[in-house]
Amino acid sequence: MTARLESLTQQRLEKLAKLRSRGVDPYPRRYQRSHTAQQAAALFQESEGKGGSLPPVSVAGRIMTHRFMGKAAFLDIRDGSGKIQGYFRVDQIGEAKYELLKELDIGDFVGVTGSLFRTHTGEITVKATDFVLLSKSLLPLPEKWHGLVDVEKRYRQRYLDLIANPEVKSTFLARSKLVSGLRRLLDERGFVEVETPILQDMAGGASARPFITHHLALDRDLYLRIATELHLKRLIIGGFDKVYEIGRVFRNEGIDFKHNPEFTTMESYEAYADYNDVMQMVETLVSSLAQQVLGSHQGKWGEQTIDFTPPWPRITLRDAIKKYSGIDFEDCPDESSLREAMARINLVAPDLRGRGKLIDKLLSAHVEPQLVQPTFLLDYPVEMSPLAKRKPDDPRLVERFEAFAGGMEIANAFTELNDPVDQRQRFEDQARLRKELGDEEAEVADDDFLEAMEYGMPPTGGLGMGIDRLVMLFTNQSSIREVVLFPQLKSRNKEE
């Protein structure tokens, strides 16, 4: 803490002691407000010009500015709905109260009672007849005139970010609206929301490195889930026709503008559907959510405009990679030949092993950045998709699509593999990748899931959708940290 900050804090502590010595409780238990700031302003606007008097209102919030002018003062008070001005005069609240008002600081919470009027500058204001201190702030708000701009501080102390930068709150209100809208749309389609375990015996359902924890009572290691897929498909096997879950998943991976170690997904599974049905559902869901959140099917993305109106373009993965990189991966049947072709376009990936990983690298390096408008990429090589069903006309490929917008993946879907014999073989192939190539992200075999499949699983269309990235798109934010309230950060010691 700097010397200046220590001095300001000491001043506030002295004010706190002074208030208590006067018999003022600086932290009362509750306050009965009659209106939010927004409701009070709306009440005045509705009555304005109709004549008659309004009853007194009681509002409450944090002091954001104060201006003293002799025997009168103005305070800007902000609550969760917005800001309203308070006007205080000695002849209205009395000398003792007015002196108490001078002991308040920016950041303190107050409750104010009085009548509503409009000042000569046109601002709706509460003309105070009384006020009460609700919480004394001991630390000054940062950079009070310019907002909080230190990015690391904004993420680490999100509460200060929300106080200093009101526009940040709108991003998270949009996020809430998106999630509730998605839930409503799925419910209307007949999907049932369920919950599946976060702590699991093994982390399956995706290619990712898991976090490991230890259960003391059972004396066993458990994994934080990397996907909800395998448990949701168990429910399809058990007789649910349509299920979904919105929840956190955890992947022990790097952090960048579109990756956070914990993130929110929506996964859904629909019996008797395939990836074509899911594709249509995705573009309908996303365009409907855009309309609800943005009020339009279009939204700003940097300097561009994204149009979510269906139908979205569909292109095979093979054609997309060939178009943007010049490489046809069908001409490269193994890792060695594909690596040589990539080297010719100066794309080197020494840490990646396996043909599937190299194709994914081509996708991320050359194709993803080009897909600003919503686009479906279809039909992936089988080695990239151990849980997806093979295409009947080409068993080297599976019925899988990924949806992209803003240059990043926003959804991933399969016609789900429901042949337990093929699934067991795919798990064994993944195990070889893990053992021979040291691929720690390779899919692990889940014997319990395989046993469930052997009881029979109907044809199923499955979907995984990234909530954080959708919020990024709808709020025009280029970093996932802007749409996660408390993103993962380096420790303070490491930064120092």
Tell me about this structure:
This protein has 496 residues and is of the alpha+beta class. It folds into two domains: 3-140, Nucleic acid-binding proteins (OB fold (Dihydrolipoamide Acetyltransferase, E2P), Beta Barrel), CATH 2.40.50.140; 163-313 and 373-495, Bira Bifunctional Protein, Domain 2 (BirA Bifunctional Protein, domain 2). It has 16 helices and 19 strands. The strands form four sheets. Strands 6, 10, 11, 14, 15, 16, 17, 18 and 19 form a nine-stranded mixed sheet that branches. It has a five-stranded mixed beta barrel with strand order 1-2-3-5-4. The protein is elongated and about 85 Å long. The two termini are 14 Å apart. The mean pLDDT is 93.
CATH-assigned homologous superfamily of the largest domain: Bira Bifunctional Protein, Domain 2
Count of alpha and pi helical runs: 16
Shape: elongated
Count of discrete structural domains: 2
CATH topology of the largest domain: BirA Bifunctional Protein, domain 2
Topology summary:
Elements: H1 3-21, H2 37-47, E1 57-69, E2 72-79, E3 82-89, H3 90-93, H4 95-101, E4 109-118, E5 124-135, H5 151-156, H6 158-164, H7 166-188, E6 192-193, E7 199-200, E8 212-215, E9 220-224, H8 229-238, E10 242-250, E11 262-271, H9 275-294, E12 298-301, E13 304-307, E14 314-316, H10 317-325, H11 335-344, H12 355-367, E15 375-381, E16 390-391, E17 394-405, E18 408-415, H13 420-436, H14 447-454, E19 460-466, H15 467-475, H16 492-495
Parallel strand pairs: 3-5, 6-10, 14-15
Antiparallel strand pairs: 1-2, 1-4, 2-3, 4-5, 7-9, 8-9, 10-11, 11-19, 12-13, 15-17, 16-17, 17-18, 18-19
